[in-house]
Amino acid sequence: MSHSQLDQLIIMANQIADNNHLDTDAESVEFIATHIKKFWARSMKEELIAYAKEGGDKLNVLATQAVMVLSEQYTSRST
């Protein structure tokens, strides 16, 4: 995936996080992670997970937490 595509993934993840604040941060993180899991292509998720694991400095806090939840889910499923 090119750098500009990664930039777009970061923007989209941050927008999802910015627009989905629920009662608690934990609920928000779970919602964001579920949304990305359901609607993003596997390659998109993998690219964002790799970016977050490398530091993910452009992701906001909730987006980072959601991506790390996804990472744990993918690791536990061995996919």
From TrEMBL:
Pfam families found in the cross-reference section: FdsD
Protein EC: 1.17.1.9
Keywords, in A-Z order: Oxidoreductase
InterPro entries noted in UniProt: Formate_DH_dsu
GO MF annotations in UniProt: formate dehydrogenase (NAD+) activity
Highest taxon, organism lineage: Bacteria
EC class: oxidoreductase
Name under which the protein is recorded: Formate dehydrogenase, delta subunit
Organism expressing this protein natively: Neptunomonas japonica JAMM 1380
Organism classification: Bacteria, Pseudomonadati, Pseudomonadota, Gammaproteobacteria, Oceanospirillales
Gene, per the UniProt record: fdsD
